[in-house]
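Appendix B. One record, verbatim.
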Amino acid sequence: MAVLDDKTRSQLKSVLGNMVNPVKVVLFTQEFECPLCKDTKEFVEEICSLSDKIDFQLKGFVDDSAYAEKLGVDKNPAVVILDNDGKDYGIKFYGPPGGYEINSFLKSILEVSGKREEFSQDLIKRIKAVDKDIHIQVFVSTSCPHCPEAVSKSHRLAFENDRIKTDMIEGSAFPHIVNKFNVTSVPKIVINNNTEILGNVPVEDILKAIESL
């Protein structure tokens, strides 16, 4: 049964038509103790079917635990976007990338494929100059219209620098993590488990927080 209606499928197919190179979309799920895994699989799989440049791969969080560990996946459902050669840019979606987050999901697919927003050379230089391991968690709700941009900005930092990893975390899927970081509004950006930024701020603000660590 189709998750998306014909109009939405047509719109998404048009967006994905802007992809430059093929990508791999890897989804980690499990059958038990993961109430959102089934719906996430149906949703992600249907989106991936809209482009012949997307290689959708379904993996078991437990059965393929070695591969999950290699990609740094520590919970599920989790979506990782790799380029055609299997390079991992540290771009992950934990929980279903539905609702408004479909925008950040599509944007990340396009960026990994080679279709990227132009950044100034100065900004790119600053991002690439980050010489420490950075882990960014962006807490979102799929009903939040401001969240996708915060996710996309953070994912772009990861794309430009291998030492930066960025996770989208859909709050309702991981209430224990939401409680740990006292997430009361979204988007909330947490850097290296201690620096917090509230709201959809400019990418320069995220970068400045990273540089100050």
